Amino acid sequence: MRYTELGAFLRSRRERIRPEDVGLVAGPRRRVPGLRRDEVAQLAGASADYYNEIERGAGSQPSEQMLAALARALRLTSDERDYLYRLAGRPLPAPGGPRSHVHPGMTDLLTRLTSTPAQVITDLHVTLVQNPLAIALLGDHSGFRGKNTSFIHRWFTDADARRLYPEADHDAQSRAFVADLRAAAARRDARDPEARTLIADLNARSPEFAALWARHEVGVRRGDRKRINHPALGTLEVNCLSLLSEDGRQRLLWFTPALGTDSAGKLELLAVVGTQLAGIPR
């Protein structure tokens, strides 16, 4: 009964969305209102057959990761997202985690940023969703699990994460990450387990982090000019701009070429061959 209601709810949500609202081309021959099942599957990163089973109420229990992807694809409100999880018999995700609800307005804006790399991250630098150009520029962040979903955690515990920035910039990046994390931890409840566990783990595993944390520097990263290493295009100098949510727990990041550099041409090339470049090992 509950899975049947889940399927009916998903169907009602997709029928209210126009293809152009989510960056798809409507085409001249559409026989259904709103999105087709295969379009929802495409937006959520699922196979069409799997999504069909869910909507029919005949499939297996959807994972929390799939529910988060469907909530974003269908532009669900926070109440609708919670209802979806309850119908599926899954616990609600903790606020600020990798399956956090992304405000539909922020998702819509990300969808419309088709010519520049953009992504939504949490205040603990957990990537929630990326557009194709962000994946091509920064790599696909969807495969990380546990503490490694946080780029700050990877930065201080995994040398491979530091390949993203030139070595000369590492010290400045480390200070900025720690100052931003201190601001995020202060905004959250003092008992927040995610922030507390992340900070404790980094203090134990990274002497560099522990030394910087002891300096008590604080500063929200609202905008940066930074250099990014790309395995095929070399170093790009970009402006990294931020749009913060009202509670400060999420931010939309987008990247524009820095004036006086050759990065504009490189970003244009990234837009043309981004899919191929995204698969290059980092």
TrEMBL record:
Q: Which InterPro entries match?
A: Cro/C1-type_HTH (IPR001387), Lambda_DNA-bd_dom_sf (IPR010982), MLTR_LBD (IPR041413)
SMART domains hit by this protein: HTH_XRE
| Family annotation (Pfam families) | HTH_31, MLTR_LBD
Top-rank taxon? Bacteria
Q: Where is the HTH cro/C1-type domain?
A: 34-81
Tell me the protein's name.
Helix-turn-helix transcriptional regulator
Task: Kindly list the organism's lineage.
Answer: Bacteria, Bacillati, Actinomycetota, Actinomycetes, Kitasatosporales
